[in-house]
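In response to reviewer comment 3 from the previous cycle, which asked for concrete evidence that the modeling workflow produces usable outputs, we include below a single protein chain processed end to end. The sequence was submitted unchanged, and the resulting structure tokens are shown without manual editing.
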Amino acid sequence: MIDPNKKLAILSLAEQGYSQRRISKLLSVSRNTVKKIIRQQNIEKQPRDAESESALIKQIKPLLSSCSGNAVRIHESLTDAGYEIAYSSVTYLIRKYNLRGRKSCVGVYTFEPGEEMQHDTSPHHVIIDGKKTRAQCSAIILSYSRKLFVQYYPRFTRFEAKSFLDDAMTFFDGSARRCVVDNTSVILAAGAGSDATIAAEMKAFGISYGFIFLAHAVGRPERKGRIERSFLYVEKNFLAGREFSSWDDLNKRAREWCVNTANQKEKRSLGMSPEAAYVQEKPYLIPLPKVRPPVYGHFYRTVDTQGCVNLDTNRYSVPEKYIGESVDVYKYMNNVRICYKQKPVAEHSRLIGERNQRSVNKSHHPSIHQRAKRSAACEAEEILRKAGPRVTSYIAELKPHLRGRGMRQFNQLLTLQRTYPEDAFLYAVQKARHYKLYDLNRLEDLIIKYVAGEYFKID
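The workflow returned the following structure tokens.
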């Protein structure tokens, strides 16, 4: 862009009769630039009557919407259409006839301590586990002290809204009397602004904490300007240059940033930090209820043939014996609990930000081979227990010294019982238990020694 002082010098020299070539040499400017500036000046000097201006305005008005109000693009479109008009003339006509519309004064909103808090969400791009991910940033601020609380979610439904507000009230250790929100279907059931109808479950949630929801008028986002201005601060300060390993890591560091940075920085409008102003506002906040039920979602599911239930596109395992049964699934913020006839049968960590994934507990779905081994070990143990209390006591002491299910040891012990006389076997087991002998090969030596002394005459 040419220097305005140099532009004035070009026009001054041109009025004095200097040629374009000479002006170009004197000011070290290309002749095309000199020619363009002089031509624009001549166009601006041309008198425009009311008819020509009205014709231009008719062309400019539709371009305002198609060009999103960008005067540069409007000027380019007029030039392409054959109109010789300077850019400054386009902006002059837009201002003169108020084609963009005048902005009305919004005034200043002042709030008493504990009077209001403002909540909103905004989409941000964050890097989680090395991948760029679109996340919903949910933020709430106390209007008087400007104390801020921020969390991130893969999506933002009423379940996430209630979970976030529950965490926020805990963070603030209380709540204001009113919460101003956007005209979003997450909070509203119908209508907008003063005619909005708050969703029944959100209204009940607010009442349990002692506050009400208020939707601002359509097209007046400045009504919650304190939270609107905070999103740019979060995006440019907290997210800038940071990467996160998981959603839990993201929200943990967001909370730490709120405590150590956002609420400690002094604000000119307050003359102090939000944390210092919060000390003044705290006595006016509504205390937290003594009993707060956990935030959860309740769903009915039928266990499929693979022994899983489906929730939010992900699958969670259930013991095989419940295949085909209807179960109750309780979704909490960080875990999923599955109950059958009011009795818990499975619990999993919730898969957050994942799709079409499985959370499987190996004990729920043992393989056929493992099941056969477990059955064989149990059968051998049951046969041995029938041999009497001495064998039963020995098995109880032997078990802690076994690895796994002890299938090999139980089968070996059963073989000894079936191979040797019963009295020799019981005698050896009693001796082994007395001396805490759990090596079955040495147990067999005891049996052979007893058998040799009783049944054979050995010199």
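The chain has four domains: 4-96, 117-284, 297-359, 368-455. We consider this sufficient to address the reviewer's concern, and the full set will be provided in the supplementary archive.
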